[in-house]
Amino acid sequence: MERALPPILVTGDQQGFTLLELMLVVLIIGLVAVSVSLALPDTAAKRLQQDARRLEAQIALATEEAIYRNSDYGLLFGERNYRFLHRRQNSWSEVEPDSRLQGGALDSETELELIVGGVHVNRANEPQILILSDGQLTPFELMLWHVGLDHGYRISASFGGDVRRFEVPAE
After folding, report:
1. Core vs surface per residue 159-169: b (16+ CB within 10 A) or e
2. Does 96 reside within a domain?
3. Has residue 17 been placed in a domain?
4. Which residues pair with 104 in a beta bridge?
5. Domain holding 90: CATH number?
6. What's the whole-model pTM score?
7. Which residues form the General secretion pathway GspH domain (predicted)?
8. Model confidence over 32-54: pLDDT tens digits?
9. Residue range of the domain that includes 93
10. 3-state secondary structure of 124
11. Is 2 exposed, middle or buried (0-12, 13-18, 19+ CB in 10 A)?
12. Following DSSP, what letter does each residue of 46-64 receive, concatenated?
């Protein structure tokens, strides 16, 4: 009596995918997702817009914090960064680490130009912009642009604390 070999599949016809097929599909989906994420540009224009928005929001927040806490703040610009300082007695000091007023670094290709009272202001050791406890702040215009872009942003503030951001053509 001859014995027949047992069937490979108990159910007869195949009903589903093998583990190898599933792993291959997951691998292909992963490769497509990676290639799409690498192809989507993190453009200079987008980074510049984010820097301008963040800075505008931080200045508006500092104005509100100054009123709420009855404290004076200052904004100090460096080469490619900015930071907020707090006035204590007769000197400026860093804001508390848990403060919402944290400075920030700008994109490495972002240039900035600060104009206060119609005069270009250079980097300094003390804040170039004062944010006072009564809601007033130093009127200024801050130009942000990125090398190679045809536009930039101007953030301006009035004495009364009104902060606005505008897109402007590059100079």
Report:
1. eebebebeeee
2. yes
3. no
4. 82
5. 3.55.40.10
6. 0.72
7. 52-145
8. 888 877 766 668 888 899 999 99
9. 44-169
10. coil
11. exposed
12. HHHHHHHHHHHHHHHHHHH
